């Protein structure tokens, strides 16, 4: 039955291509920019343990479920959910799950692009030698000055959105696949180099202690929510990005194995980023809880001091931009695929429309760092609100319903047809998506709402 379903958008050329693309989507600003600063804000080790637990117990089972739903439906998430709902004979409202994802992707990309724009600006700062003069305080001060300028932020946000639209317009093989093939390996090499540098500083042990010595008194309900939300964010789960990539996955490729590979690579990159960054934070007397500017304030200090720092610094920020790009294309792909399927538009037209729409919305984030920085709701500026709403609420909610759909609504035999797991592994996965993952998300939610 599923053999007659074919994606009109094309397919990945191999298993390796899918793993690269999904890893490209997962590894991004979330690992290198966000993970260190939220770990810093939430007290370090204990937060890291909760996050790792969430990746294992919730993230991986849901990643398997989301990829499986995509490959079974073989369309944009909205239409995949429609088809699968009919196949399961379920109520038609399940396809709103696809819509929730498209909206979340659009909101995330609107701020993601602004932060990726910072990375582009930092490529130029690195190459022009801005990090090699001045002391630590001056170099980290560059960041505060930079984000105060709406014009600069708008320019770089625009450049990044245009780059995203250009890659997505080229399609699955020509655009997405080509872009990630050389990006991921190079990023890993550069991160290892930074870790080696961090090891040479006096504060290496202090950095490691901060990241791996848990102090559970620092954990609050909100930090558990942040850790869980981040597990979804960093693995690109709960909004259809992995679902749409799954829909381009050829048959006979093991979904479970690829999911473990992707989640493993993603986690490794986040931990390496933390190990590279915290020793530098302590060695230079900076605050681990500095917030979203953390890596932009700490890493340039290291680049300013190390031999070859001009080249490494430039390369690092270039790779960060590329890591962001391989994630941003997956944030917009569900919407583009839907526009192509339902409006009969060309990919180009769909990309331009979705991109311009997102760009306009991104201006809100730009201004939240300068002219609107005093505008706060629930004690958060617009960027913080968007981040909280999407990463902490919409993605876990989307993931919750995907798990429920895969575990309770879809016929078990259909899921097994796609997953092709041995009996015990299938039972294990099914138990996790039926009970553990939904229950965990539910419990964290009601705890935060204050019912527990
Ligand atoms: N996983 C990406 C990162 O860690 O930067 C961000 C992301 C991409 C989130 C795609 C959600 C998504 F669907």
The helix-strand sequence is HHHHHHHHHHHHHHHHHH
Uncertain regions spanning at least 5 consecutive residues? none
Considering DSSP H and I runs of 4 or more, what fraction of the residues is helical? over 70%
Structural class: mainly alpha
Please report the number of helical segments: 18
Description of the molecule:
- By secondary structure, this protein is mainly α.
- The chain is built from 18 helices and no strands.
- The protein has helices at 15-26, 29-41, 45-73, 77-88, 96-127, 136-147, 150-169, 172-199, 204-212, 221-234, 241-246, 255-283, 294-305, 309-343, 347-368, 382-409, 412-419, 423-449.
- The model has no long low-confidence stretch (mean pLDDT 92).
- The structure holds 4-fluoro-L-phenylalanine.
Name its key features.
globular; 452 residues; mainly alpha; 18 helices; binds 4-fluoro-L-phenylalanine
